[in-house]
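General statements about sequence and structure are easier to judge against a single worked case. No coordinates are needed to read the tokens, only the vocabulary itself. The sequence in question and its structure tokens are set out directly beneath this paragraph.
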Amino acid sequence: MIRVHHLETSRSTRLIWALEELGLDYELVAYQRHPETKRAPDSAKALHPLGRFPILEIDGKVIVESGAILTYLVDREGKLCAAVGAKEEYTYWMHYAEGSAMLPLLLKLVTSGVRTAKVPFFIKPITKAIAAKIDGTFTDGELTAHFGWIEEALEGRMYFAGDTFSAADIQMSYPIQASFARADMLPDRPNTKAWLDRVQSRPAFQRALKKGGEPIMTGTPT
């Protein structure tokens, strides 16, 4: 039995996508965000103390963290693995997605929240100035560097790890989707956009989208 615990508009859409690519049967348990705070429900803590999504129940185990889940599925099924000669690249992108690429995106989410927070009118200029300072001195530069590097890495190639689609592409999808939704200060990225259009046109992604919904909601916690 495979059971996927999926939070709307979150990283867990990647897990649904992977299972669709692998052709595995699974039960989907969907959770809604709190209507005001947009946080995940506390009920998920019954499965794991942190209550973070995605959560996968499989083979008598409970597995959390997208990278760990994808690695388990790839090893179990022997599919979506690295192309011949691309193991190092595959491993790099599997870890880079959450290890480096997401940090400036999360900071951008925080500063956007600071800008739109409900505070007394006389404090609003201060909160906006703080957010602008953080973005100007760190966040925007980091976003430009990281997503410029991704654009460069995709030059002349179809996928992140060799010439075949792999779990590394699924793992990298979330930060790239988030970058187009939240980092409008970034320049045009034709290589990245072509890659995103290519992988999102896959039938398995389209099925995952119908079952799990859009992965990104601008301006909400993830």
